[in-house]
Structures are given as C-alpha cells and as structure tokens.
Amino acid sequence: MFLLNAIELNSQIIAKNGMVVSDSDIASQIGIDVLKKGGNAIDAVTATAFALAVTFPAAGNIGGGGFIIYLNSKNKVTSIDFREKAPILASEKMFQNETGDLIYNSNHKGVKAIGVPGTVDGLYYAHKKYGTIPWNELVQPAINLARNGFIMTIGLFNSVNNRKFHPTQDFLKNYFNNPQKKIVKPGEIWIQKALSETLISIRDEGRNGFYDGWVADEIVEFMKKNNGLITHKDLKNYNSVERDPIKGDYKGYKIYSMPPPSSGGVTLISMLNMLEQIETEKINFDSTKYFHLLIEIMRIGFFERAKYLGDPDFNLNMPIEKLTSKVSSKTKFKLINQNKASKSLINGINHPNDGENTTHISVVDKFGGAVSLTYTLEDSFGSGMGSTKLGFIFNNEMGDFNPVAGLTTEAGLIGTSPNLIEPEKRMLSSMTPTIVTKNKKPYLIIGSPGGRTIINTVFQTIANVLLFNMGIKEAIEAPKIHHQWFPDNVRFEKNKLSDEIKNKLILMGHNLIGVEQLGNLMGILFDEKNKYFIGASDSASPDGAAIGY
Ligand code: GLY
Question: In this structure, is the dihedral angle defined by the CA atoms of residues 472, 540, 23 and 11, taken in order, positive or negative?
Fold first, then answer.
C-alpha cells in the first residue's frame, strides 16, 4: 500500500512516519506537531504529557508521577522513574490510630495522602538527556491551551461529575468554572489561567520552575495551611532515576517494561514466561481453557508481586532475576491444576483501593525510536486538592503504600515489608508502560490505566498480538479478565466474555464478578509486511485518539 498520509481504517490509524496515541485527541495532535517539526519520541511525549495535564486533568498531570520506557533509534532501551516519593516527615504509622489500626481511608483522602510530585522532574530529565527540540517549545502548547482555553468535551465534563469530592476542600468544586463562576458546559471554552502561570514558570525555569521559586513557595504554603507534610526540602531533594528496564523475551520478541518501584514489569515477564509454557498450537483464544490458565497464572504473578516488590532504593535484595527467569516460570506453571480453580491462601495479599485513574501515551518517531509513558494522580483527579494560585491537582499516591505492617487480610490489606512507608521512599506501582521489539525495531508500544488491573490488561493485550496474531484494535478491545490473588475472584467484562466460557469457569470453581470495563489501552503496532504503524485508542476513552502522519 502506498500511503500519502495517515489514514483511518476500521477505527485504527495507519501511518508511515510517526504516531502518538493518548487519552486526548488535542494532546495527541500536539505530539504529532512536534514529530513533524523533526522532534523525536521523547520530545513528542513531553509535549503530549504537558498538554494532557490541561486537557485530561483526571489523570494527565504535573502534580503526580509516572514512568517512561524509551527505545532510541540505536535499539538502546532505558527507563525513567519519576514516581512520587513519601515526604521526609512521613512515617510508617502515619495512617494509624493509637491502637495501630488503619484510620479508614486516611491513606487515600486528605492532604497527607499527597506524595512529592515527580512528573515535571521526570519530563525535564528525559528531555535534557534525550530530547532535541528546545524545552520551551514543548511546554508552550500546553500554556496556550490553558491560557486560551479549549472546548469542554462531554467526556471531560462527565468525568468530574463522577468524582466524589473531599468534603473539607472545594478546589475541584470550582475547578470547571469560568471567570463568572459558572460551570463550563460541553461545547463551551474552558480556560485555566492559574495553570497557565504555573506552566510558564516551568517553561522558563525548567525543573526549578516547579521545585523552586514561587511555585514551590505556594506548594509549601498550601501544605502549611492544610497540615500537609511536603516542605521545600522535599521539593529540592526530589530526583528522577534512570533504571535498567525489566527485560524478557517471548517467542523471539524482546519485551522491555518498568522495573520497581513498579511491580508491572516483573509481574508481566513472570506471567508471560508462564504463558509460554502453554502448548500454543493446542489452545484457542476463545476457550475456557485459555481463560482458566490466565487466571491461575495471574494468581501466582500477583502473589509474588505483593510478597517481594517495593522501592528498589530501599529493598536491595528483591529476587527480580528469579521472578523473571524462564526456569522458575516452568516450575511455577507445573503447579497449576489444568482443570480446576485453585485457592488463594490467607497468607496472600490484597490491597483493594488502588486508584484506577491513570493515563498512558504511546509514541513512535521516524528515527526508529519509541516511548511508552504511563503517569498518574492515583485516583481520578487525585486528592482533589490543589491551590487556586497554581491551578493543578495534587496526587493521592501515598495510598499505594502498605499502611499497617504485618496486617494482610483476606478482606483487603497488604502488610508486607517491602512497601511500608518510609521517608523519601517511592510507593509500589502497577503501571506497566511496555515496548516490544522485533529485529531490534519497535514492534508494539502499549500501556493502560487501571490500578492493579494494568498489569493484566497489558499482559493480555501483548498475548493477543504475539500469541493470537490479533491486530492492535482487536487486541485492545478483546475480552479481558483480572485476578489479583486476593480477593480470590475474577473480574470479567460483562459485555465481552461469552456466557459459555463464563459458565464453564464457574463450574471449574472460579468466583466471577462482572464489570463494565477493564483497562483503557493506548497502543501502536508495526506492520512488518507493509512497513507502517497501526495505532488505536481504547473505545473506553471518550476523547482518546491515535494520530499519525
Ligand atoms: N496509582 C496507580 C499505580 O501506580 O499503579
């Protein structure tokens, strides 16, 4: 096929030169403009991420944190960790009462749930080391969007109405107001003046425009006023870390994903290695057997996740090699009963309140580079708190730590030590930005929001492509399930999984719970035969778009 430009076919975008897929069509277009100017994937993702902080504030952010997997044009892959950190004043028992019990939901709600934001530092680090277009040109489009406004969409308008507000603050209540203090309706222009000022500071001063100067002063002032913990020292000390990605191979493809403090990469590779033990010629996607094996593989993967993983700077002896080795996966797979559901044991682990609102960006450039970036505020609109002078929302990421040591219950808590709260520690994440290469070239760029479901939706989408040869849109939309060790049940997409498979899984002893949706995937796949990229955003994303050129 000869492509003059990008074309749309069956809800997928096909393009020769480059592509950006994100939760906002406006933000994807901004990334494409950067690529067309000659920028690389890091430049494009930087501009897209800043734009998403304006157009998709439920999860796009400068007040949260995240991860980048970057494949450069010379087939070198690295990861950048800009996960939030616990403030220096944080402590292991900060969410407990005098008798050591968790104060209900205190780790998710209120000012103490806010971790030291990492996004600005992470994007700055990535750009300084790997970017080619001047920094100010990458932040400017977001400033324009915030200052001049953009049209409020139905999706965005609905998203804030689905968010429960924290009763002690009103930042979000007025967040979607126009200067006349009336709520901006779909079709009207939404301007974010205060956010534009904060972005100008970041444009002009780089990282220091957020962690130092008037923005930092205002963050600290906000903390003081609301009994928060973040100080100037926390902001000054914040640092992103470049880490070796977690590597795996599956049927000749190389997989690169996020290492701890994300649990995503380790659990993904462990599960793919177990999946590789299936005699694939004897299994169909649309079969009870396949979904049964997925559940049992997830049960093992998520037990390991909870038991072993945390911030690598505080846990020096995590058995990463063993968890991701082919040999140990063979042994683990042999333990699976092929015909019957097993049971998760009480010494297993759960953590029910993972925020599910995160957002993912996939990018490829014309130089052979690719970026997979996932970042988050934890809950939808994070803590819901912010300073009206700054115009952005703070995360509530402290809820991703284990809040009470030793308290691991069937009903819902993890108490294992690798992820207990310590000053300046990063909380364990499930974000799984991933790049798959074939013949040293980008082949599949994929990621999703969804709390702990992220690992499983990315896992299944990769399997759909590599094992069942699905196209990217088909792989993203195919029925997905989720098991996370505890609670011992299987979430499935009500409108997608067939009744026959569902009923047979129940007969095998699985406890099934129907949900509307799992994941919200943003993916790009390389078509080797025709040498073009095919991109698709999940139909769960009302404003999401793949844009190519
Ligand atoms: N806050 C969701 C995650 O990091 O996995």
Answer: positive
Tokens of 375: 């970042």
- CA angle in degrees (0–180, nearest 5) for 106-109-115: 95
Compute the Cα dihedral for 43, 458, 21, 395 and give only its sign: negative
Mutate to test the pocket of ligand 1, among 429, 455, 456 (most ligand atoms within 8 A of CB): 429
On whether the CB atoms of residues 114 and 384 are closer than 8 A, the answer is: no
Q: How far apart are CA 452 and CA 430, in angstroms?
A: 5
Residue 413, CA distances (Å) to 230, 311, 355, 409, 485 in order: 26, 18, 15, 5, 12
The answer to whether 337 and 299 are in contact (CB under 8 A) is no
Joined tokens for residue 500: 């026959």
Positions of the chain with pLDDT lower than 50, given as ranges: 1-2, 167, 348-352
164-176 per-position pLDDT tens digit: 655 456 688 888 8
Q: How far is the C-alpha of 291 from the C-alpha of 267, rounded, in Å?
A: 18
Name the H helices within 309-380: 320-323, 326-334
CA-proximal residue: ligand 1, atom 3 (nearest): 429
- What are the chain's domains? 1-119+239-549 (3.60.20.40)
Q: Quote the DSSP letter at residue 395.
A: P
Pairing of β 512-515 and β 490-493: parallel
Per-residue pLDDT reduced to its tens digit, 271-315: 999 999 998 888 999 999 999 999 999 999 999 998 999 999 999
List the catalytic residue out of 231, 267, 358, 461.
358
Rounded CA-CA distance 47/31 in Å is: 6
Q: Is 358 a catalytic residue?
A: yes
The alpha carbon of 135 and the centre of ligand 1 are apart by a number of angstroms equal to 27
Task: Return the ligand 1 atom nearest residue 431 CA.
Answer: 5
Instruction: Report the chain's C-alpha Rg in angstroms.
Output: 22
Q: To which H or E segment does residue 491 belong?
A: strand 490-493
Nearest to 300 by CA among 339, 273, 260: 273
For tokens 């690389």, the residue is 40
Rounded to whole angstroms, the Cα distance separating 43 from 55 reads 18
Residue ranges around ligand 1 (CB below 6 Å): 354-355, 358, 376, 378, 397, 400, 429-431, 451
Q: Are 448 and 432 in contact (CB under 8 A)?
A: yes
